[in-house]
DNA sequence: AGTTCACAAATGATATCACATATGCTAGAT
DNA sequence: ATCTAGCATATGTGATATCATTTGTGAACT
């Protein structure tokens, strides 16, 4: 198992950096569904003792990114069509909610930064750098929802991202087939117009087209439907 | 700090039981907002070494039930009016979503069990057993949302309950002032009629009246508004 | 060849220890 | 009396050791 390192500032705790590394790896789909993990294996891979690894894994298990089996072993959960569709539906509900509640706090400056992120995404797409595309996409959404100063939904949203993550590589490969219209441009237009209804619509379409269609295709080809 | 014990079956791990105990205590509001916690303090209180306590605490921190401060100390987060209103709004969005997606899987047998829970709540209310009332209420909601076999929203919902928990005792004391109409009865009626719109309406009203109004009152009386 | 049992290796869970940092208290200076 | 410096204590973090349980392997048996 090879978990890429991540830049960390000096004061971060080992537990924290393990958490960040695993989280990142899961979210971009580095680790495939069904992968079995061991505390000592991860600890060895990262050159640490099992202690901080256990703490990081526990956190991820509470976010439903890692599954603790009855035999006390750990695994990345398998994806099924039913679970996938529930996750996408939840993602839409949560992100439409978060977008709606961010709009009143939105400044032109943030819109500008969102625009820049979208530009970077265009570059990543043309370079076929799919992991980077994924990260930038999530960063775009996170930034929008975080402008609400009392925001409490981002952690829930990130948990859904984590659960969809292992499946991400398979989905994103097909994204060009289904993602004909650039919904981020629509989101940006709605933001500039401060148009709530348009924003909610564009957000839903973005998520649905970015994951649902291609994801379902992959799943009906490969996986059990239960 | 006195964290009540909880019944556990033989095979549960120490870490797991600490997690369950803390979680329960936070959810019914045993621990007040702003309370400072220490690993060793909790460990001593439960007769365990710090190791399993750390893991349980880490999990709860990832569910935003416990806050890790920059000095690496831990505390139960303070509540503010802004955060409170965001939490209630998120609770409504999530639970309306979950209720809607459970309805298609609902059996008469489950409706019967929900009815029984509601009866128990009436008794708890007449006995003024407020902690029990809280637990039964959450159990009622959890049972409904869990009939969806592919359900993925309950963990997110429980995280919101956890974040509202420390505030629960103050709110529930006032519940009689605002909770004039029994919205659980309305939910049950909607379930029996398989009426989605009525279900969603009743769910929203139940949550809003059960927490929002009395909660806001408590907060505007006591706390900073930021 | 396939099955079963026994033993070895791997793994998870927890306590303990060592270390670094943060906190709190006391004594001295102003 | 108040502030500050310094030291003792408390606390968080992580490595290690130990034990119980699970997994895996190989030999004996059918």
UniProtKB/TrEMBL annotation, chains A, B:
It comes from the Bacteria. The keyword Cell inner membrane does not apply. Residues 12-79 form the HTH gntR-type domain. Keywords: DNA-binding, Transcription, Transcription regulation. The keyword Ribonucleoprotein does not apply. SUPFAM superfamilies: GntR ligand-binding domain-like (SSF48008), Winged helix' DNA-binding domain (SSF46785). GO terms for molecular function: DNA binding; DNA-binding transcription factor activity. Pfam families: FCD, GntR. InterPro entries: GntR_C, TF_FadR/GntR_C, Tscrpt_reg_HTH_GntR, WH-like_DNA-bd_sf, WH_DNA-bd_sf. Signal peptide: none annotated. Coiled coil: none annotated. PANTHER family: HTH-TYPE TRANSCRIPTIONAL REGULATOR MCBR, TRANSCRIPTIONAL REGULATOR, GNTR FAMILY. This is GntR family transcriptional regulator. It comes from Neptunicoccus cionae. The lineage of its organism: Bacteria, Pseudomonadati, Pseudomonadota, Alphaproteobacteria, Rhodobacterales.
